[in-house]
Structure formats: structure tokens, C-alpha cells
Design a protein that fits this description.
By secondary structure, the chain is mainly beta. 9% of the residues lie in helices and 34% in strands. The protein folds into 4 domains: 8-111; 114-199, no CATH class; 210-290, Immunoglobulin-like; 308-597, no CATH class.
Length: 599
């Protein structure tokens, strides 16, 4: 093997040298150096060293942490040293050289991991399959003194030899700390000792079996997008790693999502299920493709001061919510502003104000917790008061979710109507597969838990229209309590909430009305994960999408994340009451992405 660097060390000259130098002077070279105490010390992490002693010397005293071999040839002694079970680390004392009183010591080789890997690559025999416990010469699946004794008998021999195990590289997975791939070079030397020493004291790992694969990534896309997903493999030893590039993909509908050169391309509006296959294991992932929105958001979160979707990258938190005090700002996943509902353009006298301010999320191993803050612009003081949207017994509110576990729809039934209505009043272009509807006031009406059928439609059929009792959904209302430090409201140039004319929210000034005493209600809904066919791991590795919305019985009046379709007809007169806004009956095509929870 090629020498890294040689040095000449005459003991008599060393004494003179150190006598003439300062105490911290060191004879340095590439990877090791001799310190002032005449000790050979590692300057960087190495695997082993080999040196030759020429002349007379006393017994070599080598630390028991090391394996060493000495071989006498023509009166000179060659010594190879490597540390048991690990690297020789920076600062480790390899050998005390004071044993050689009248000898010349020549460093012949320093073995490093990078040098070993380079030798493997240069050999042209590099491979990454079929790990072997290198150094297990007696085939007992462990490396110990018996293997070392066999090695000593073969040291310095050339040709084909069972102890020729270097150069070598380490394995993967539970073989990652072991040298497991060998490219023999027809000589047993210090490099082979380094490999043996690294594996010394270790046993053959148990076989690692592929348990399954999972697919994570975006569940929604727009036409023309390249869709990014990740395939992870999980193994019997508890480890996992990404194998996306090694998996194959099949689309249930190539006209919607096509597989092109291993990449997923969104081709047309619709839904498709992507099936990934790796080493006999399969996993599926549902993707909904939408056309790019035209309601002012362009399919992106509304980008105006005061509004935010997943602010600061927040996706909620893993936490059990037992009461209002468990909620915090760090759980906020969507931010709106106050005074942005249609009545602020036309019909300010109308109440309650269906204003939604901020959306929060949390989860644990059992439940998904969602909470929305509802401002009390009209300053009512009791929960069961129809002047408060949080206490309304007449006006429905809803929660839209996309779990990715069912066929994705846009919120409509097969007849083109929304649930709880007799017409088409809103759609979520980002895709939804679950809608939860109820009146804000508790114990009023019959709340509904709606899920999509195999075609992505909602409906009243028994298997897709469930009750809160069946699903275990629970609501909690924390009246006049809120988490947000401020309540930023949009005011016109006259300082008022009402009388707005522009639909461009950036033209309004934001005023903190919480500092003036305005309060909010925290409205919470607890949804068992089992009812959504997901678990805690799914939320944290794949994530789900969420929105909350208010209505005046038909069309949406506010939504979080906020969409400008909420006010696109705000100044148009309502057909049944010209003093109020037609937003109560218009169709809202909601194109902003839903807020993400978990990931």
C-alpha cells in the first residue's frame, strides 16, 4: 500500500531537539504528530498506523484499547496498530515512543477512512450489496480474539487469503458502523488490521426486512404543476429512509396526473390515485388537480397585510386541549382581519356579524382540535344571543377538511348543490373530502358530518352523512375569551368599519380594536381522528388541510384562510332586501389553498 508520509525519528536526536525547543513545540505531519512527551498522537480521526523500528529497543507498551501486530524482518520490526471497535480519534495517544532508546522509527502508513474509500473506488470493484461481517474468519458471527489470532498467522501474506479484507467500505442501515464491503488487494497488511479492529467486539446485525412503504407530499395541485411526493421505506429494525427515486408509480387516471420519466405531472382538473411500488410493497396517495383560480388569489394565499395562511410556517401543535388555556398563538394556522364581512360594504345595521378572525389547530393521539376566534363587533355579552354569531341559532357555520383519505371533491353534491342548501353557493377549489356543518349555538338543529363518496360528491346517503353522535364530534365555546394578542380591523379613511367601497383590502387601515375593549369568542370543535380515518402519525408525516367558514344560510360570508370571493359582490343589493349585500346569495369560488395541519 502506498505510504502517506514517512518521517525519520532518531531517539538521540529527539532528546536534543526537545531540549532546544519550547515545551509546546510539536513535530507535526499529515495525520499524526510527536508531542513534547515523545508520544505519537492523532491529529485527525484515523483508522490505524504502521511504522518500522530499526535498531534496538525495549518492550513496546501498547494500550489495551488497541490491536497491534509486530513482524520482524532482516532485524527490523514492523508494527501495525488500530483501535478496537472505533476510530483513533483526534488527540488519542497511539504510542509512547520512549521505548526506543537507540532506534530509528519510520512511519510507513497512516490509514484513514477517506483513503480506504478512495482505494475501493479506484479498484473498479465497488459494490453495495450483500453485506459481510469482515473479520469474522471463523464464521461465528462475531469478531473477537479468535479471529485476531487467525489474522496474525496470515499477516503480511500475499495472494488470495481469507484475511485480505481491505480496502473496504461500511454498510448501510444497521450495518452503517461496520465494514461490510471488501475489495481485496492480494496482501494482508495494516489496512486489513484497521478493518478488523473497527469491527472488533461487534456481532453480525440481524437481518433487516422491509416492512412497508408510505407516500407523503402534496395532495393538491394546479394544472401544469410538477407534483412532489416522497416515498419512505420502513424496516424491521425501526429505521426508515427515502426511496423515492427507486420506486415506480402508476396513476389511476393519467389524463389527470401522468407519470412522465418518473415525475408526476398535473394534466387536467380532477382526481387521481398514485400507487407507488418498491420491492413488492405498495402505497397509494390521492391527488386533486384544480385549474388555476380566477377570484383574485390565483390559487395562492391572499397576500395582503393582516392576512396569513400558516403564518411563520406554523401547522398547529401536538397537544391535548383540555380547556381554553391550552391554546396558544403558536397553534395559529390562518389569520384574517375583522370588519371584512359583506355588511361592512352594504348593510352594516345587519346582525349578527359572521366575522371570523383566526383559526388554530392541535392534535394528539386521539383527536384533532380546531378553534376559530369570532369577534364581538356588536359587543354582546351573552353566548345565547342572536347578535353574536357565536351564539346564533339560525345561521350555519362549517369546517372543510381535506384528509387525502377519500376521493376529493369541491364541496358539491351530485346534483350540483351544497349540503344544507338548495343551490350552488360555494366550492373549495383546493379540494375537500369532509365537511362538518352545525349552528353555532349548542343543542340547536342536527349537526352533520359529511364525507365524499367514491366520486368526490357529498350527499345525504347514510354512509356519507353521519351525526356528531356517530363520529364523536364535540364542541366547546369559550365566550369572550381569545388567544390573539390583537384584533386588527379594517377601517376606511373616515375611521369607520361600515361604508366600504373598494374590494381591495390593501386600501384600508388596520386598527387594533382589542385595545379598545372589543372581545372575541373562541369556538372549538374536537374531531376524533378515527372519524377522519387518520392517526397522529398521518397528521405529522402527511398532514391535512383545513378551512372554517360562516354563512347566512346559503353562501359563505367569511372563510379562513380568507378568499376575496367573500366580497366580490359585497356592494350588490340582496334580492330579498336591497339594504343588505347580495353576498348572502352569490356563488363563491374559493381558490385560496386551505391551511395545513401537521405538515
Amino acid at each position: 500500500m502506498k505510504n502517506i508520509k514517512k518521517f525519520l525519528l532518531l531517539t538521540t536526536l529527539i532528546v536534543a531537539l526537545f531540549a532546544s525547543c519550547q515545551s509546546d513545540n510539536k513535530d507535526e505531519f499529515n495525520s499524526v504528530y510527536v508531542n513534547k512527551d515523545k508520544k505519537l498522537v492523532a491529529k485527525e480521526a484515523i483508522l490505524g498506523v504502521e511504522f518500522e523500528i530499526k535498531g534496538e529497543y525495549e518492550n513496546i507498551d501498547i494500550n489495551s484499547d488497541y490491536l497491534y501486530i509486530s513482524n520482524v524482518n532482516n532485524g527490523n520490526t514492523t508494527v501495525a496498530i488500530a483501535k478496537k471497535g472505533e476510530d483513533i480519534n483526534i488527540g488519542d495517544v497511539i504510542l509512547d515512543l520512549s521505548f526506543a532508546t537507540n532506534a530509528e522509527i519510520v512511519l510507513k502508513d497512516v490509514i484513514t477512512e477517506s483513503k480506504m474509500e478512495k482505494a475501493v473506488l479506484n479498484s473498479g470493484k465497488f459494490k453495495r450489496a450483500g453485506e459481510t461481517l469482515l473479520g469474522d474468519f471463523n464464521n461465528d458471527e462475531k469478531i473477537d480474539i479468535f479471529d485476531f489470532n487467525i489474522f496474525k498467522e496470515n499477516y503480511n501474506k500475499t495472494g488470495t487469503n481469507i484475511c485480505d479484507i481491505a480496502p473496504a467500505t461500511k454498510g448501510t442501515g444497521n450495518w452503517a458502523s461496520l465494514y461490510a464491503f471488501s475489495t481485496p488487494d492480494a496482501i494482508v497488511n495494516a489496512s486489513d488490521l484497521a478493518v478488523l479492529a473497527n469491527n472488533y467486539g461487534k456481532t453480525k446485525p440481524e437481518a433487516v426486512l422491509l416492512q412497508g412503504i408510505t407516500v407523503t407530499g402534496s395532495s393538491t395541485a394546479f394544472v401544469g404543476d410538477t407534483i412532489n411526493i416522497t416515498v419512505n421505506a420502513s424496516y424491521s429494525n425501526g429505521t426508515s429512509n427515502a426511496i423515492t427515486s427507486e420506486a415506480t408509480f402508476v396513476s389511476s387516471d393519467p389524463s389527470v396526473v401522468a407519470v412522465e420519466a418518473g415525475a408526476l405531472k398535473a394534466k387536467a382538473k380532477g382526481s387521481a390515485i398514485i400507487t407507488a411500488t418498491y420491492d413488492g410493497k405498495t402505497a397509494s396517495h390521492s391527488i386533486t388537480v384544480n385549474e388555476k383560480g380566477s377570484s383574485g388569489s390565483g390559487g395562492e394565499a391572499y397576500n395582503v397585510e393582516g392576512y396569513a395562511t400558516n403564518p411563520n410556517g406554523q401547522v398547529g401543535q401536538n397537544k391535548t386541549i383540555t380547556g381554553f388555556s391550552d391554546w396558544s398563538e403558536s397553534m395559529k394556522i390562518a389569520q384574517g382581519i375583522a370588519a371584512d364581512t359583506p355588511r361592512n360594504w352594504l348593510g352594516y345595521h345587519e346582525y349578527p356579524d359572521p366575522d371570523l378572525y383566526a383559526l388554530f389547530a392541535a392534535w394528539d393521539s386521539t383527536n384533532l382540535y380546531l378553534m376559530v376566534e369570532i369577534p364581538h363587533i356588536d359587543e354582546v355579552d351573552t353566548i345565547d344571543n342572536d347578535k353574536s354569531y357565536a351564539g346564533s341559532q339560525f345561521l350555519p357555520m362549517g369546517w372543510a377538511l381535506n384528509t387525502g383519505k377519500r376521493a376529493t371533491g369541491n364541496g358539491l353534491m351530485a346534483d350540483g348543490c351544497n349540503v344544507w342548501t338548495k343551490g350552488k353557493f360555494f366550492t373549495f377549489e383546493d379540494g375537500v373530502d369532509t365537511i362538518i356543518m352545525h349552528h353555532p349555538r349548542l343543542n340547536i338543529g342536527t349537526p352533520g358530518f359529511f364525507i365524499t363518496d367514491s366520486n368526490g360528491y357529498f350527499g345525504y346517503e347514510e354512509d356519507i352523512c353521519l351525526s356528531f353522535k356517530e363520529t364523536g364530534v364535540v364542541r366547546d365555546i369559550y365566550f369572550q375569551q381569545s388567544v390573539s394578542a390583537n384584533i386588527w380591523a379594517a377601517v376606511g379613511s373616515d375611521g369607520n368599519f361600515g361604508g366600504k367601497t373598494s374590494s381591495d383590502m390593501s386600501t384600508y387601515t388596520l386598527k387594533d380594536i382589542k385595545s379598545g375593549g372589543t372581545k372575541m369568542t373562541a369556538y372549538q370543535i374536537t374531531v376524533p381522528l378515527a372519524s377522519l380515518n387518520i392517526d397522529k402519525s398521518y397528521i405529522e408525516t402527511t398532514g391535512i388541510s383545513v378551512a372554517v367558514f360562516s354563512t347566512y344560510g346559503e353562501s359563505t360570508m367569511d372563510v379562513l384562510p380568507w378568499d376575496p370571493s367573500m366580497i366580490d359582490n359585497a356592494t350588490t343589493e340582496y334580492s330579498a332586501d336591497s339594504s343588505t349585500s347580495a353576498e348572502k346569495e352569490d356563488y363563491d369560488k374559493i381558490t385560496v389553498p386551505l391551511a395545513r395541519v401537521g405538515k
